[in-house]
Amino acid sequence: MRDIEACRTASLGGHVDVCPKCDFSRPSYNSCRNRHCPKCQSLQQARWIEARVERLLPTHYFHSVFTLPAGLRSIAMRNPKLVFELLFSAASSTLLDLGRDEARLGAQLGITAVLHTWTRKLTFHPHLHCIVTGGGLAEEQDRWISANRRYLFPVKVMAKLFRGKFLDRLRRAQRDGRLLLDGTDYAAEGAFAQCITKLYATNWVVYSKTAFASSEHVLRYLGRYTHRVAISNQRIQAFDGHIVRFATKGGETLTLAAEEFIRRFLLHILPNGFTKIRHYGLHAASNAKTKLALAKRLLEAKLGIAAPTKAAAVIEAPSYRELLILLTGVDPLLCPLCGTLMQRRPLPRAPPLRSAA
What we know:
alpha+beta, 3 domains, five-stranded antiparallel β-sheet
């Protein structure tokens, strides 16, 4: 919260751009770069997507969403790191196991998974967005096996397998003493066992969307999910010092007391050092130069796409200025009045912000 309060204020220092021709000046303060800050994600998102371009395969992709049922939310809030780890593990294992099943595909998939914990009303709702290759590399590593373009796997099969994998991991965590139940709905003796029994009888929700037409569509879609925070500044419509009104879904709005708004926002702060974007199968970092590269060559040969020559020039990552021009269409270093290249001068840091007692 201190980072977000200080973001782009004088307390973090910055610089002033001055036009040598018309004397126009514009101060710019430094960003906090906290991954939960609504103002600091656009450049990181653009850089991340740029880095992922080379790892996308020329095939269709699916979007699958794995959601934890409401009965697990108090446990997840008490044990966020553990439960989120289990969510990643169970969902990725579900997809990889079904992909390897000879009766279904018989190949290794590529998966990129992104954790979200919120609804549009900022309530706690942990779920995992998975972008999955529409096919995989055969076990013999000699061919690419394409999946049906209409669906990847039956969602009911995915949901049951995901449920079994997650609850088995959760029970083992409780048996090993890694799961904390004090302060949850299941702190009483025997309550956790009853919870597990009830959850096995519950239909879990796994959603799968129609395949993306191309890797370009995947990139645009990923940009909506990878670096999103619980709420963006654009959704906040009013604040009078006591209440906050913000847009939710379908043109509707929600009004909350400021304290409740902050409480809900803080529900979605991730544990320190927790990685919310992960890659599995062909997309795993360990496979980038081996299985993924092989899968790409096999697909390109299958589709008749000419592979780049070794003499092809290496494309350097775009600078922050180039990214800003791409994102906003405005060159931040040119004077908005006369178009002259402005000169940059540093600004000292102001005293840190102090919250009122």
